[in-house]
Amino acid sequence: MAKLLIIDDEKAIRGALRDILEYEGYSIEEASDGEQGLELVTQNDYDVVLCDIRMPKIEGLDLLQKATEMGKGAQFIMISAFGNVETAVEATKRGAFDFISKPPDLNRLLVTVRNAIERGKMIVETKVLKKRVYKLNEIVGESASIQRVKDTCDRVGPTEARVLITGPNGSGKEMVAKRLHERSGRAHMPLIEVNCAAIPSELIESELFGHEKGAFTSAIKQRIGKFEQADGGTLFLDEIGDMALSAQAKVLRALQEGKITRVGGDKEIKINVRVFAATNKVLQTEIAEGRFREDLFHRLNVIPIHVPALAQRPDDIPLLVEKFLSDVANEYGQASKEVDDDAMKYLQSLPWTGNVRELRNVVERLVIMCNDVITLEDVKLFAMPVI
Known about the structure:
DNA-binding NtrC family response regulator; phosphoprotein; five-stranded parallel beta sheet; 14 strands; DNA-binding; 387 residues; Sigma_54_int; Rossmann fold; CheY-like_superfamily; Helicase, Ruva Protein, domain 3; alpha/beta
């Protein structure tokens, strides 16, 4: 049952609103002035607050602002007999869901209250989902090497610096990019990922910069590229060491000038994009052998972050296993399983050539194939099966 608070200095208005809203099944509380209303809002959680604008002690707009500053999740519907456009605009600026004139139209009141409740639910659900996504994307580990990675992300994230992330396959380079983005001023904008190794060389330019209709045989309509999609946000160029040299030249120009041109087009398009790049290759070697542009390397390598191989931080394996056990259990709707001490020590001794990604797959296999407590025998049987 939704919980509503009515704040109004007119007893007749409070009574009328209470009768209407209780009939609809809502739980109602009342306050006769702004001071009492603020006290109730401070002490309780409401889904919706119906608040008069002109009241003794504390006026409605000031109460709304104080509630917003406290981080209260209640949706405020402001009501007043002295309503005008300026008042409605000011109420909205301060965070009100809507503004209703007195005497309120019954149908509009009920629709507005229902919509306010739904909006509150959506905000709560969004926060929960963001927490889940953050938990899935968090960098797990307390070793000195991984702590350096996290500390660097936290220091560099709020800046506009480009970052080059290096490390072996499966070590968690994508997690580093996501942590950087989440701590940046662009976190509310998209993080667009491009796997340069997965796109054929003849298509990479169209993927990055887009194309105009008719630019080539299969270009039957205009396409917006990843740079444009990431405008205002972040572009993550994964496996950039595999990018074709022709595309590297255009990426360099985009970074230098903040402009791109679609394939088959001649119009320059301004872009505002922060770029993170990642590779499992040693780019200095690629440069020496003519496969990577040195000038692009220096453009990207403003802040280098190296993600260590899992075998170099075995003390982090128990934390990762615990996280993966919980994640897999949640995915399958099961109770989380345990790994006994001998099994955990054995997991720490394995080479993990596939790094964190391989460990995650092994834990999922163990959850599926084993009983509630995963033993050393289980790990020996299922962790490194003979193919």
